[in-house]
Write a structure and sequence with these properties.
This is Activator of Hsp90 ATPase 1 family protein. The chain has a 7-stranded antiparallel sheet, covered by helices on one side. It starts with 8 loop residues before the first strand and ends with a helix. The chain has one domain: Alpha-D-Glucose-1,6-Bisphosphate, Chain A, domain 4 (2-Layer Sandwich), CATH 3.30.530. Strand 4 and strand 5 form a beta hairpin. The protein contains 5 helices and 7 strands; from the N terminus they run E-E-H-H-E-H-E-E-E-E-H-H. It is of the alpha+beta class.
Length: about 180
């Protein structure tokens, strides 16, 4: 497998960091984080609360990302998958922190940091409080695959097969995550 982008890194046993340079200004990338219609093109739809403490739902419809049908071992994701989250911190258009998988304080937490980089955006995603290695491999490959879709969308290209890419990335992260 040839990777388009480098693998994310573990900055601590329960923390994953993924960095990208995205081909759009900060304001455009920010819109793809907070606007439900734009976000659904690469991650998940669902209205997002605009203030800390606001609870919201992420509505994942993976089959819409690239048109590729989920393979049998991902059959549960053929339907809409709903995940509750909560805004922890928001500083438009440069920083967004949300809980992941639950709105509780014990949930894992994702921070998106955006800053200008040339004609594009330095995009840093940090996922904290991952419970174990298995979950770290899962979210690392998932974020990597979703960010490949975002990169394609921002380049106005059709994304490659999401599930094919995810399967290959899971193998790469299985060897990469300690």
């Amino acid at each position: 497998m040839t990777l388009k982008h480098s693998l994310g890194t573990q900055t601590a046993p329960a923390t994953l960091r993924v960095e990208r340079i995205l081909p759009a200004p900060v304001e455009r990338v920010w819109a793809y984080l907070v606007d439900p219609e734009k976000r659904r093109t690469w991650l998940a739809g669902g209205s997002m609360a605009a203030a800390p403490g606001g609870v919201f739902e992420l509505r994942f419809q993976h089959s819409e990302l690239s048109g590729e049908e989920a393979p049998e071992h991902y059959a549960a994701y053929r339907k809409t998958h709903i995940q509750k989250s909560r805004v922890v911190r928001i500083e438009p258009p440069k920083l967004l922190t949300i809980t992941w998988g639950s709105e509780s304080d014990a949930a894992s937490e994702v921070t998106f940091e955006l800053s200008p980089k040339g004609d594009g955006t330095q995009f840093v995603l940090t996922h904290r409080r991952l419970p174990d290695r298995k979950e770290t491999v899962s979210v690392a490959s998932g974020w990597h695959a979703h960010l490949e879709v975002l990169d394609a969308v921002l380049h106005e290209r059709k994304p490659q097969g999401f599930w094919t890419n995810l399967s290959e990335l899971e193998a790469a992260y299985e060897a990469h995550v300690r």
